[in-house]
Amino acid sequence: MGCCSSRSSDSPASRVARWRSTGIVALRDARLKAVPNEVLQVGNSLRILDLTNNKIVDIPQEVGRFVNMQRLVLTGNLIENIPANIGYLRNLKILALDRNRISVLPEELGSLSNLQQLSLSQNSLSRLPKSVGDLRNMLLLNVSDNKLTALPESIGACSSLEELQANGNSIEDVPSSICTLVCLKSLSLNGNKIRQLPQNLLRDCKALQNISLHDNPILMDQFQQMDGFKEFEARRRKKIDKQIDSNVMMSSTGLDEGIDLH
To answer: Which site from 10, 28, 161, 213 is most exposed, i.e. has the minimal number of CB atoms within 10 Å?
Structure first.
């Protein structure tokens, strides 16, 4: 009886019932090559789907059914393409697609009107869609370690953006529209080909506290001569002083705010 009961309790039907009840499906490190059919049966009840560290190649078209999903984590898979109907996930707040093989993003990504965090590091992206500028509620964008040569001008429309990480690309020019990001606090552009920044960046981005530009051709003198440098430096030092006063635990690089450009 015990064996039969155990098998029954973990049947596909019972898993679907449990997932519908909790709204959470977490199948990390499960050696999956595809999204299980049982997951697709959860429907509108699904709020969180975490399939980290599997071998999934495709995101099924049915993903568009999960209209109440708030968090989709597919980090560490073999995904190459994102289906256009991901744009139906209007309640999605977090989308993590790091460590995949994605080279192109659909324009429909811009329909994710409630998205707050978009993480796409360690993929093969050569460009970002223009529609990224429609993500007006996005707080964090991480596109580090891709093949980007530029950031889209439309990024200046991401009016809530607080942190932009684009390390380890081949970016040469930073669009002037970035100066409109009045909420931007942290800009990380290490390991690119940047020789200069928009002249008004430090003056107009009045919330900016941290810029990391290590391993770029830009010179420290150029940075210090930018309009608003003194004000930026004051904000940066105030942040560091506050961290010290609060006894924040830091790594050995915790106080390295990217001012030392080389």
So the answer is: 10
